[in-house]
């Protein structure tokens, strides 16, 4: 199937989904064929593909097979809701973490093979070192992105690290999951230390990475254990807010 055919199939599938609404949550194959103008054979093939991935489900009612939206939309809606609220819910905890450590605090999300920084609270120090909002970096670079990478499946990690021959990074990802945090030195900016922990959503999936960054000579880094504890407390507080 060439690219144009794939795009056409995607558009047809999306067009089918658009017909389901609160007033008409279920349709027969014939009704959908009439509404969309697609032949039944084409329509049935598309519905089966959507059903395979959970976007469509079928029920039997009064001897008729009806098609409706699948339960996967509930999962996706929860994911989007969490991400929309994430910055707002995390901000107070990020400010408290900055006030406690006097380090710059960042929040990042995974976007494909990259991490994107979506929020930051600068430190009070005259020299401020932190990734700007909107900055994208590879998931394998530095503490904050690497936490996101560590909590992906091994198969997903292999897809992202396909160009890397290093077994050391895989070993580090295992250690990050075991310990629940990551530390990096001088990877995004020379002379800096970054520490990061995962942020879990209401379904106990990693939705973001919370990190602090400062200069290597900052006094706070003499007790890294205390910094990690503060990070984990802030992360857990954000998770509690996400759970409502």
Automatic annotation (TrEMBL):
- Leader sequence residues: none
On whether DNA-binding is a keyword of this UniProt record, the answer is yes
Record GO terms (molecular function): DNA binding; DNA-binding transcription factor activity
Q: Which Pfam families match?
A: HTH_IclR, IclR_C
Question: Which processes are annotated in GO (biological process)?
Answer: negative regulation of DNA-templated transcription
Q: Reply yes or no: does the keyword Transcription regulation apply.
A: yes
Which keywords appear in this protein's UniProt record, sorted alphabetically? DNA-binding, Transcription, Transcription regulation
| Matches recorded under InterPro entries | GAF-like_dom_sf, HTH_MetabolicPath_Reg, Tscrpt_reg_IclR_C, Tscrpt_reg_IclR_N, WH-like_DNA-bd_sf, WH_DNA-bd_sf
SUPFAM superfamilies on file:
GAF domain-like (SSF55781), Winged helix' DNA-binding domain (SSF46785)
Residue intervals of the IclR-ED domain: 72-244
- What residue stretches are annotated with the HTH iclR-type domain? 7-69
For this protein, the record's PANTHER family field holds:
HELIX-TURN-HELIX TRANSCRIPTIONAL REGULATOR, ICLR FAMILY, HTH-TYPE TRANSCRIPTIONAL REPRESSOR ALLR
Return the protein name: IclR family transcriptional regulator
Organism annotation:
Fictibacillus marinisediminis
